[in-house]
Specification:
Elements lengths: L4 E7 L19 E2 L2 E2 H10 L6 E6 L4 H7 L12 E2 L4 H13 L5 E6 L7 H10 L5 E7 L4 E5 L2 E5 L5 E10 H13 L8 H7 L5 E4 L12 H15 L2 E15 L2 E4 L2 E4 L2 E3 L7 H14 L4 H4 L13 H13 L3 E10 L9 H12 L6 E6 L5 H4 L3 E12 L2
Parallel strand pairs: 1-4, 1-6, 4-5, 7-11, 16-17
Antiparallel strand pairs: 2-3, 6-10, 7-10, 8-9, 12-15, 12-18, 13-14, 16-18
Helix pairs in contact: 3-5, 8-10
Bound molecules: magnesium ion (MG).
Magnesium ion binds next to strand 12 and helix 8.
């Protein structure tokens, strides 16, 4: 499978300005809301289905503290960390070199100490990469700027002046070549990657990341990050509940697909896609909670491109719509109604599969099954029905 979007998180710094007696570790490993700063940063990228791969560059000697920091993240998109170099520029090049074997189309380079990037900003970056080779997230300068000159002050015109943040996102081949060229020409003074892109004469578009996307630099910044991250999770108090219902009939075949799991059976389910009645019900429940149409609105059965496709595509898209609104799915409750096949032994696999598709913990997913006491179409073994209830939180 070709990789579209890779994320390179730079965590090699020592963060000396943020160190105090209380926070003696590099700032990316200091705990905020019970997790390391870098844990929050990695999680924010994993929350987007557009993120295909994440590589973290760490300092020599930080291996143990890094492993501690990412405990509990079980996502195969997170690669093993690699060691960086002396400077930020060298660390980024080490990361790009390590990534080059998998040849991604695009790369987002991000500071580990910026854990508060919003999903909205991230979605804008991913969206811009289809039309631009270089994208910079920043925020317009709002304070009046002064320059000290030999004991007196000068005011600097702040029109069109921006603070550069990260992610800074690029066409992979472009930025990799520019980094290598800088080494050949012995230029090591770049403080960010857009600096290299500018040096190469590349047009760069600017996306406003907001002041919340600040870099933790000073000791008091930990408290600010905590307030923002805590506020966001509390703010998801626009609680929505959606329901979904779907039915597919049996036809000759040798297995049914339920919840993304193939179950051997003497018949299959009939449908335009893979007829995964369970994932269809969950998809409709997510879309229902968002008040954003239904599965047929977004993936019309009349469109030949959805013929025979695996239904996780539909659910991944619905989950993306939740994340694009900075929302979170809280709980999924699925009930499958059929006389056959027997569901019970496949429940753990289905829970696991749905958890992977939705990027959700398994203890937030319930899979139940019932017969209909031989009554009605399910009772006559003509097909399978599924009902789903999804609870999600959106920002107020
Ligand atoms: Mg269906």
């Amino acid at each position: 499978m070709s990789i579209r979007n890779a994320v390179l998180i730079v965590a090699g710094g020592q963060g000396l300005r943020a160190r105090t007696d209380v926070h003696s570790n590099p700032k990316q490993y200091v705990q905020v809301l019970g997790k390391a700063v870098i844990w929050h940063t990695i999680k924010l990228f994993l929350a987007s289905s557009k993120t295909d791969v994440i590589l973290v560059v760490i300092a020599d000697g930080d291996e143990n503290i890094y492993d501690q920091a990412i405990l509990g993240i079980n996502d195969k998109r997170l690669m093993g960390a690699i060691q960086g170099g002396e400077s930020r520029q060298q660390s980024v090049l080490a990361g790009l070199t390590a990534m080059s074997a998998s040849n991604p189309d695009c790369v987002l380079i991000h500071d580990a100490a910026r854990p508060c990037l919003t999903q909205q900003s991230l979605a804008k970056v991913y969206g811009s990469l289809s039309t631009h080779k270089a994208v910079l997230v920043g925020t317009p300068v709002s304070d009046t700027l002064k320059k000290t000159v030999a004991g007196s002050l000068e005011t600097i015109d702040r029109t069109n002046i921006w603070n550069a943040q990260t992610p800074q996102a690029f066409d992979f081949k472009f930025i990799f070549e520019v980094h290598k060229k800088a080494v050949l020409e012995n230029i090591t003074s770049f403080t960010d990657d857009c600096g290299l892109a500018e040096w190469a004469g590349q047009n760069i578009i600017m996306i406003d990341g907001g002041s919340g996307n600040f870099k933790i630099t000073n000791p008091e910044d930990f408290e600010l990050a905590e307030c923002i991250l805590k506020g966001r999770s509390i703010m998801l108090n626009d609680v929505r509940v959606g329901t979904g219902y779907d039915v597919h009939a049996f036809e000759p075949g040798d297995s049914v697909i339920l919840g993304g799991v193939s179950i051997p059976h003497n018949r299959k389910l009939k449908g335009h896609s893979d007829a995964d009645v369970a994932l269809h019900a969950i998809t409709d429940a997510v879309l229902g909670a968002l008040a954003d149409g239904d599965i047929g609105t977004h993936f019309p059965p009349s469109d030949p491109q959805w013929e025979g496709v695996s239904s996780d595509r539909f659910l991944i898209d619905a989950v993306r719509r939740v994340h694009d609104k900075d929302g979170k799915i809280r709980h999924i409750d699925l009930t499958i109604v059929c006389e056959e096949p027997k569901i019970a032994i496949h429940r753990p696999a289905m829970k696991k599969s749905i958890a992977t598709i939705c990027n959700l913990e398994e203890d937030r997913i319930s899979v139940k099954a019932t017969t209909s006491e031989r009554l009605g179409f399910t009772g006559r073994r003509e097909g399978i029905a599924a009902l789903a209830t999804v609870t999600l939180g959106l920002p107020e």
